[in-house]
Amino acid sequence: SFLIGDGTGMGLPESDYFAFEACEYRRQFLSYKPDYAIMTNIDFDHPDYFKDINDVFDAFQEMAHNVKKGIIAWGDDEHLRKIEADVPIYYYGFKESDDIYAQNIQITDKGTAFDVYVDGEFY
C-alpha cells in the first residue's frame, strides 16, 4: 500500500508494508513515526515557512528521532551526512564510501542496469 503527498494512493488489506511520501512543509512529516525513512535530500525549500537551511535541517533532525528502525539517506547530501539518529543510518549513492552503492552503470533505451554493493560486497 502507498500514499503520495498529493493524496494519491492505494491500500490493499493484505499488504505487509505501507510506503508514503511525506513533505517537510510546515513540519507536517513530524506527525509520522515510521519504522524506516528514506531521506533523499535537505534543501532550502518552502522559504515562505522555513527561515533558512538550518531551520529545514532542524526539522529533518527532529524527524530522524521519530524513526524506529533505520534511515536510508543519500550519501552525497552534505546536510544528511550531519543528521544524528537513535537508529542506524545507511547511506546510498555511487561512492565506495557509501554503505550501499551502484557501480558499472549501463543506460540504454531499454532501461538502466547496475551492480549493487552493500558494505563493499557485491550483492
Automatic annotation (TrEMBL):
<dbReference type="GO" id="GO:0005524">
    <property type="term" value="F:ATP binding"/>
</dbReference>
<dbReference type="InterPro" id="IPR036565">
    <property type="entry name" value="Mur-like_cat_sf"/>
</dbReference>
<dbReference type="InterPro" id="IPR013221">
    <property type="entry name" value="Mur_ligase_cen"/>
</dbReference>
<feature type="domain" description="Mur ligase central">
    <location>
        <begin position="14"/>
        <end position="120"/>
    </location>
</feature>
<dbReference type="GO" id="GO:0016881">
    <property type="term" value="F:acid-amino acid ligase activity"/>
</dbReference>
<keyword id="KW-0436">Ligase</keyword>
<dbReference type="Pfam" id="PF08245">
    <property type="entry name" value="Mur_ligase_M"/>
</dbReference>
<protein>
    <submittedName>
        <fullName>UDP-N-acetylmuramate--L-alanine ligase</fullName>
    </submittedName>
</protein>
<dbReference type="InterPro" id="IPR050061">
    <property type="entry name" value="MurCDEF_pg_biosynth"/>
</dbReference>
